[in-house]
Amino acid sequence: MATQKLSSFFFVFFVLLQSLSSAESQAFIGVNYGQLADNLPPVTETVKLIQSTRIEKVRLYGADPAIIKALANTGIGIVIGAANGDIPALASDPNFAGQWVNSNVLAYYPASKIIVVTVGNEVVTSGDQNLIPQLLPAMQNVQNALNAASLGGRIKVSTVHAMSILSQSDPPSSGLFSPVFGDTLKALLQFHKENGSPLMINPYPFFAYQSDPRPETLAFCLFQPNAGRVDSGNGIKYMNMFDAQVDAVHSALNAWGFKEVQIVVAETGWPYKGDPNEVGPSVDNAKAYNGNLINHLRSMVGTPVMPGISVDTYIFALYDEDLKPGPGSERSFGLFKPDLSVTYDVGLSKNAQTPTAPVTPVSPAPATTPTTPTTPVTPVTPTPKPTGSAWCMPKPGTPDAELQANLDYACSQAGIDCTPIQAGGACFEPNTVASHAAYAMNLLYQTAGRNPWNCDFSQTAALTSTNPSYDGCTYPGGSL
């Protein structure tokens, strides 16, 4: 009995340490680990690679025992999947569901930190009328099997949807689920509500850009400075497509009375190459989207409708999958190459200290974007200094959403060190978006060449001869 108590103590202590570790890292950043390829590195090497990054969660499309075993005792959250082909058996036979859970979950848990079981992928929008009615019964049987193993509250059951489950998404406040899927979706959402499981979606601003390939749309999709888009339903200005797509799903949930159902982004990404006739794939665009997405999530600014939190987001994908059908872009989403080197750097490495990317287009940085304020602070009065120098400051009245976009952009540029506005830095206080954005915008202006166009930020900034430095926080300044 004493041995059992001691074992229980160490188990609880281990879980506590894992929780603390996750709290200190970006637990909302995950990656999709697909295997439709014939050139992938060994699983053990892949796990070492993941451990060298800030990726905290991995989504598998199946339940490969080699991968699940290799991820044991790493603390990395694992999403495993039951294939579409398993749905009929899972739906019709509770014993099959129990065996599936025994073989794919209980055999590895808790050493392998399985957090979600996805039943099928994009089933509702597949058009398969034989499969769709069996999806919910399959999920229920998997849930019952987990409940029987006393894991119902620890491991969630969900399924993954394409954005086409929405009949309307623009503006975001008008988001609605398609009536074509009405009864099926309402039953699934009731399942999520009752079991506290997430609605998992696949938003791809890349596809939105392909359908509207204008320069302003590209900037909006890549989190680059842009004029924004005002939601005619509520007056909110959106500064990027990702937030708009996620909030459209939230609006759809709210419209049907399921506001409390959590949203998880199961897939999102941008290809770094494609066929000659494809619009949008490039290394620069992929760097900009994935890097700025990561910075946006790290900023904890959230979305306009869900501020202050970052939605769990699984980036597609860890590696290219050279056996996938379709256009060239389908085989070119990998963050890493088969030799384990980066395809392009988005600042995921734990060893990354400073941004490493070209100035144009926007490319990402490691965690350099500060968090949004949680408490009111006292404004700081700038200290007047002699004229003859210029500083780039936000224009009065610029909304926080636009300032956050400017902040994300500035801190993602090569050579821009935003550590002074991180916690403990000389310019961290006051901890407001406005103050942090002012520092970052000015730093970019001073570093980029002090040209007038370096202090434009979509007409949200202007030069001033008043030195904004205060206390121990020094704003670099240059000649007018």
UniProtKB/TrEMBL annotation:
<comment type="similarity">
    <text>Belongs to the glycosyl hydrolase 17 family.</text>
</comment>
<keyword id="KW-0732">Signal</keyword>
<dbReference type="InterPro" id="IPR000490">
    <property type="entry name" value="Glyco_hydro_17"/>
</dbReference>
<keyword id="KW-0326">Glycosidase</keyword>
<dbReference type="InterPro" id="IPR017853">
    <property type="entry name" value="GH"/>
</dbReference>
<dbReference type="InterPro" id="IPR044965">
    <property type="entry name" value="Glyco_hydro_17_plant"/>
</dbReference>
<dbReference type="GO" id="GO:0005886">
    <property type="term" value="C:plasma membrane"/>
</dbReference>
<dbReference type="InterPro" id="IPR012946">
    <property type="entry name" value="X8"/>
</dbReference>
<dbReference type="GO" id="GO:0042973">
    <property type="term" value="F:glucan endo-1,3-beta-D-glucosidase activity"/>
</dbReference>
<dbReference type="Pfam" id="PF00332">
    <property type="entry name" value="Glyco_hydro_17"/>
</dbReference>
<keyword id="KW-1015">Disulfide bond</keyword>
<feature type="domain" description="X8">
    <location>
        <begin position="390"/>
        <end position="475"/>
    </location>
</feature>
<keyword id="KW-0964">Secreted</keyword>
<feature type="signal peptide">
    <location>
        <begin position="1"/>
        <end position="25"/>
    </location>
</feature>
<keyword id="KW-0378">Hydrolase</keyword>
<feature type="region of interest" description="Disordered">
    <location>
        <begin position="352"/>
        <end position="390"/>
    </location>
</feature>
<dbReference type="GO" id="GO:0005975">
    <property type="term" value="P:carbohydrate metabolic process"/>
</dbReference>
<feature type="compositionally biased region" description="Low complexity">
    <location>
        <begin position="354"/>
        <end position="378"/>
    </location>
</feature>
<protein>
    <recommendedName>
        <fullName>glucan endo-1,3-beta-D-glucosidase</fullName>
        <ecNumber>3.2.1.39</ecNumber>
    </recommendedName>
</protein>
<dbReference type="Pfam" id="PF07983">
    <property type="entry name" value="X8"/>
</dbReference>
<dbReference type="GO" id="GO:0005576">
    <property type="term" value="C:extracellular region"/>
</dbReference>
